[in-house]
Amino acid sequence: MGGTGPVHEALAELPLVDHHCHGVVTADLDVYVARRAELGVREVDRRFLRAAGVAALCVDTGHTPVPLTPPARLAEAAGATAHEVVRLEAVAESVAASGVEADAYAEAFRTAVEEAVRRPGVVAVKSVAAYRTGFHLDPARPTDALVTASARQWLADGGRLSDRVLTRHLLWTAVDLGLPLQLHTGFGDGDLRLHRANPVLLTDWLRLIRGTIPVLLLHCWPYQREAAHLAVVFDHVYLDVGLALHHVGPARARAVLEEALEITPFRKLLYSSDAYGLAEFHALGALAFRRGLGELLQDRVGTDDLSLPDALRIAAWTAGDNARRLYGLSPTEPSTDPTTTERPHSRKV
Amino acid sequence: MGGTGPVHEALAELPLVDHHCHGVVTADLDVYVARRAELGVREVDRRFLRAAGVAALCVDTGHTPVPLTPPARLAEAAGATAHEVVRLEAVAESVAASGVEADAYAEAFRTAVEEAVRRPGVVAVKSVAAYRTGFHLDPARPTDALVTASARQWLADGGRLSDRVLTRHLLWTAVDLGLPLQLHTGFGDGDLRLHRANPVLLTDWLRLIRGTIPVLLLHCWPYQREAAHLAVVFDHVYLDVGLALHHVGPARARAVLEEALEITPFRKLLYSSDAYGLAEFHALGALAFRRGLGELLQDRVGTDDLSLPDALRIAAWTAGDNARRLYGLSPTEPSTDPTTTERPHSRKV
Amino acid sequence: MGGTGPVHEALAELPLVDHHCHGVVTADLDVYVARRAELGVREVDRRFLRAAGVAALCVDTGHTPVPLTPPARLAEAAGATAHEVVRLEAVAESVAASGVEADAYAEAFRTAVEEAVRRPGVVAVKSVAAYRTGFHLDPARPTDALVTASARQWLADGGRLSDRVLTRHLLWTAVDLGLPLQLHTGFGDGDLRLHRANPVLLTDWLRLIRGTIPVLLLHCWPYQREAAHLAVVFDHVYLDVGLALHHVGPARARAVLEEALEITPFRKLLYSSDAYGLAEFHALGALAFRRGLGELLQDRVGTDDLSLPDALRIAAWTAGDNARRLYGLSPTEPSTDPTTTERPHSRKV
Lengths: 349, 349, 349
Known about the structure:
Chain A has helices at 6-13, 34-39, 41-52, 71-78, 88-97, 105-117, 129-132, 144-157, 164-177, 203-208, 224-233, 242-248, 250-261, 279-302, 308-327, 333-336; strands spanning 16-21, 54-60, 81-87, 122-127, 181-185, 215-219, 237-239. Chain A has 349 residues and is of the alpha/beta class. Chain A has one domain: Alpha-Beta Barrel (TIM Barrel). Chains in contact: A-B, A-C, B-C.
C-alpha cells in the first residue's frame, strides 16, 4: 500500500489542510466492532484524525441530523486547527422557521448570514443547491419582487429550501458577502439528479460574478474534467475531488486525480475529505489523496515529465498551501501547535 | 493475452451467466472466411459459444430482422441453460398490428405482455426506450385518457413505437409486472441520440418506483460512472458494461470496468456480452470480461487493496452469482448439466 | 521521455499532417526568455516547426487579433506544405461589415464563401458555432424568410455572429459547398458553455446531412467518447483530440487518445496540434501525439492485441494518411520537398 520515492515520502510527512469536512458522531456506535467500543469514541476519533495528518480543517457545521463534534472538538482530536464553513441553506431555513414575513425575508436572510459569518473561525460559506434545485438556473440576480413572491410561497408551503428563485437569491447573497463559496457538485445521494449537479451548468453565473468571490467546486466526480475546464477559464474557480476519494478508494484515487489534473492549474486543486460522521473517513480520505497524488507525481518525475522540485511544490500546494492562501489560514499552524508533534508518527491506527 | 495469477485462473474457470444477449444467425454466411463455411454454422456456433464458457444465457428474443437461433438452440450450442427476455416494444407493436382500438390499447398491451412472460423460461422484460424517445421523459404514470389519445395517434400513423406517452406507459406496465426490467442505455447505433440515452435522466422515475422491480442498466458506456451513481443511491438498480466490452476490445475492457467499478457495489455489477448475430461476439465478450476483470482484481490483490478471497468472491459474484440471484436462476445449473462438462477445456476455438 | 520499440521509432520518423492549426505571431515577444529574442522569431519558429516533423499543415486563417504568419510562411518555416481552412464566421462578419441589406445577406454570404474557397490552397471550411451558440440548435435548414429576419436583427445590433438561425444557415451553407467542414467541439475558452459544445448535440443534424460532406470534430475533450460514438455511427464523421494534447501534456496524451480510440475506427482519427500563436505548441502537439500514440500502440503489440504491421499501419493512418485522403492532399509531399530532408534530425530544439 502506497509507494516509495521522495514524492511519496514528502506526501507522507506533509500536513494537510482539509478544506471541506464535517464533524464526527459524538456517541459510541452500537453496531460497530467491539474494539471500537472498547477504545471509546474519543480515542477512536483521536487515532483516525491524527492518522489523517491534517494541520487544519474547514468544517461544514450545517448538517447535523445526529449530534456531531463541533469544530473545536474535532480540532482537538486531530491536533489541528479548525475553521467553520456556514451552510447557507441552513441559515435560510432557520430564518423561515423564525416566522419572518415574505417581504422581510431577503433582508432577514442577509442579516442572519452576516451574523453567522461574524462568528470567530468562519472562513467560508457553502451551498447545497446541487441537491435542492440543481444548477440549471437563470444566472441573473432575481428582483426583490420575485424574491418576495417566492418567499411567500415557500413560507406558506414549508419544507426545505428548494425554490429556484430563492436559491438564486442565496447564491447572489453569497457573492455580496465576499467570502469564498463552497458548492457541492457531482456525486451525492439519491436526492440528487446527477446531471443537474454538473458544475458546467454554472458557466453563465460564474461569468457574471467574475472578479468577486472565489468559488470552490467540491467533489465534482464524475464531472472532474468539466470542473477542471471551469478552473482553467475562470480565475476565481477552484476544485477538489474530495468525496470521490473515499468512495472510489485508494486504488482509484490516482485515476480520478489524473483526470482532475489533466488541465487544472496546480494552484487550483485543493484537498478535502468530505468526511462525515465517522472518523475513519478522515483517515481514508487522507490516505487516498496521499497515495494517489504520490503515485501520479512520482511517476511523472520518473518519466522526466516533472522535475522533483516541481513535483514537491505541487504536492505542498495541493496538500495545503492552496487552501491556506484561499481561506487566509496561517501558514505556520502545524509546527507551532505542540499537540501535533506526534502526528507524523501516529498516522497508523 | 490475458494474465497470470490465481484471480486470472479462477476467472478462466468460472462459468459465466450472460444476463443479456441475443441469438446468432441460423444460416451459413456468404461473405465470411472459407473455414467458417467449411465448419458449418452449427459447429462454429458450438465452438465459439463453448469458448465463451457460459453457464446460463438470458436471450432477448425481440429483435430478429434476420432469423436468429431461439434460446433453446443457443443453449444447446453453448452447453448452457437459456432463459428468455421479452422485449416490450415488440409486444406493443404486435398489439398495434393486430388492429386494436385506441381505447383498448392499454388493456390489450397489458394482457399481451402478461401472456408473453408466462411462457416457460421468461425471466425478465426489456425496453429499448433509449432508441425510441430517449430517457428525457415525464416520470409520472400517464393517465388512461392520455394513453388512449396517444394510442389513437400512433395507430393512425403506424410505424415503430416512439411516442413519449406510450413509452412511459410501457415502462409503468413493466413496473406492474414485477419482473426485472432491462434497459438499453448508452452507446448504440445511429438511431440513438447518445446524450438522451444517459441513464441518469431516469433519476426521477427510478425514485418513483423504489421498492418495486429491479432495473438493469445495460451497456451504459460512456455513462458507466453515471450508471454507477444510480446503482449506489438506488437499491433496485444494477448495471453491466456488456456492449462496450466487445466494442472497446480486450485491451480496453479493464479501463471501462475500472470506471464502472469505481463506486458500483460489487453485488450490483453483472456480466453480459450483448452478443448479436455472430457467435464470435459471445466468445469475445467473455474473453474481454475475464481478462479485464482479472487484471483489475489481480492487481488490487498485488497492491493489497483486496484480499485474495475477496477478489475471488467479487469474480464469482459478477461472473454469475449476481445474475443468478436477481433472475432467480438455479445456482447448480452448470455442474448438473452433462453437456457442459467439456466446457472449461473447449474454451479455445 | 518517449519510449522505445519499433512503433515509437516509426512514429518518430513519420511526417505528420497537422489538419488543424493556426499561424504563429510575427513579432519577437517582449516577455519571453532572452534566448528566444536572441535567436529571433524566424529562427525560433523554424526550429520548433521543424521539430514538429509535419509534412503538411491545414491552417485556420480566420482568427488574427494579432498578426500571425500566413500559411505560406508557416510552410516555409516548417519545411512543409501548407493549406488553408476558411473560417465561416469570419466571412459572415465581413459580409455584415460590408453594409449588405438583410434580404441580400444569404446570397451575399454564399457568394463570399464560394469566392473564399476558390483561393488556391483552400481545402476545408471551419465553424466556431460551439463558441457562439453551442450545438443545441434546430437541425433543419432555416427558411429564407427566417434568415432574412434574423439578418435584419443582427445587422441592426452589430457584433459577432451569434444568432441561432444564422448559425444554422452558416452550417447548411457549408453543406452546399461540398468541402470538408471542421467544427470546434469541447474545451475552449471562457466564452464557451462546455456542455453546449458536446458534439453529440449535433446528432440530428449529422443524420440529416448523411451522404454530403465530411465533418471533422476538432479537439472534443472531454467529450472524446461521445465524438467517437458519432464517428462509429456516421460514415462522414471524423475526429481529432488536437487542442487537448498540448493542454493535458505528453504525460496524459496517451490516456486521452486511449479514450478516443476505444471505439473510433482507425481511419477516422486525425492528428492536429491546434497550435496558435506560439511555435512551441506546434512542437508540443507533435511530441504529445507521437509519444501518446506510440505508447498505446507499442503496448498493444506487446500484449499481442495488435500485430506490429497493424500497429505501424494505424500509426501511418492517424499521423497523416487519413488527413491526406480526406482533404485530397498529395501523398508524396514530404519526400519531394527538399527543404524537409533535415527534418528527422532537427526534431530537437
